[in-house]
Amino acid sequence: MSVLQTAPTALIRGDDAIEALARRFGVGSRVLVVHGPVGFSMVNERLAAALERAGVVAVAALHEGPCCGSAIDAHAAAAERERVDWVLGVGGGRVIDAAKGAAQRTRTPFASLPTSPATCAATAPTVVLYDERGAHVEALEGGTSAAACALDPDLLASAPERLLAAGIVDAWAKVHEVRLTAARLDAVGATTRAALALVDDLAALLREHAHAAMAAGPGGARDASLLPTRRLVAEAVVVYPGLIGGLAGADAKLALAHPLHDALTQLPGARAALHGEKVGFGTLVQLRLAGLDGRDASIETRVDAMRAEAAAYAALGVVCHLEALGCGEARSGDALERTVRRALADDSVHNALPALSHETLRSAVCEVDDWVRRTHGLGGRSG
């Protein structure tokens, strides 16, 4: 038996999404607004005005740093102390997951208002937990899904280049991971077929529109004619991966890309890179080992797939080698051994690549890192 958890219950999108979300809370409701120090400034005045017009009492709670247990505890305590009816997460992935975790802890309805297209946290039911240093601890499944998510395409499209590029790379990881895990299943049910249909559409959308979206510039600053495309892509990389992961289920949505990301977060320098940037390196290693969907038998085909993907990422401004990600110490020695060992400890890796050995993964990590460094240089957006 499998139990799938999809989110959000209500997806509110459009130019008036924030105002519609405020009305959804209900007159007289109390809302704990968990927000970060950066993205919140983009919506603070508008959100405050919308909540006031809707007769909603807002209680602000600043979140800084990783989504860790102590932060969730603090936000949960504030939710209980203030007797709130909703918890609203406003910002990027770390902020939204911290708010989501507090809502789950207190059994309070949760809503999300993403200001960044860098991750799908706003539409995913999972809470990804880190420690205070930013090292990955675990992914908490089975909690409260978002009762409402407000997506303002213009808001997402106005995000800086680096955030959108990281979101695009993270979305590509979902494409490759779900294709690989689905290829390993003995039988594909209706929900997995639905996830694969969304995967195919997301892949087509990214191939056709990702570069034009980046060419538009934040808010269409470089080319206003491409702003509709930037809106589409910015919204898609938030919505699609969350829906795909929910339909695919916990056992079918991850392969190697995310577990290798999680292993890299144990390195102090990894804080310099965004989630999607580190996931991108994991995707390249996965492609080198398994190809596009696990059916690529020849080494040449797998190498070509990895190199084409790396070139596509570099064209977006994301250079995925270890030094550019702040993880240069993992290029050799004990740090490399620990990274490989941690990645292999994840059951998702063995489900997708059951024959993968420590030596084979270590070799692939080094090969991908060396090739990307030689081909695309030491630059990148993560420094």
Describe the structure.
This protein starts with 10 loop residues before the first strand and ends in a 7-residue tail after the last helix. Helix content is 53%, strand content 10%. The radius of gyration is 20 Å and the shape is globular. α1 packs across α2 (44-53), α3 packs across α4 (93-106) and α10 (275-290) runs antiparallel to α11. The model is unreliable at 379-383 (pLDDT under 50). It folds into 2 domains: 11-151, Rossmann fold; 161-376, Dehydroquinate synthase-like, alpha domain. The chain contains 14 helices and 8 strands. The strands form 2 sheets. It has a 6-stranded parallel beta sheet with strand order 1-8-5-4-2-3, with helices on both faces. With 383 residues, it is an alpha/beta fold.
Features:
383 residues; alpha/beta; Dehydroquinate synthase-like, alpha domain; 2 domains; six-stranded parallel sheet; 53% helix; globular
Query: Overall mean pLDDT score?
Result: 93
Quaternary: single chain
Tally the beta strands.
8
CATH class of the largest domain: Mainly Alpha
Helix tally equals: 14
- The CATH superfamily of the largest domain is known as Dehydroquinate synthase-like - alpha domain
Estimate the helix proportion, in percent. Answer: 40-55%
Radius of gyration: 20 Å
- Topology order in helix (H) and strand (E) letters: EHEHEHEHEEEEHHHHHHHHHH
The CATH architecture category of the largest domain equals: Up-down Bundle
Which fold does the CATH topology of the largest domain refer to?
Dehydroquinate synthase-like, alpha domain
Low-confidence stretches: 379-383
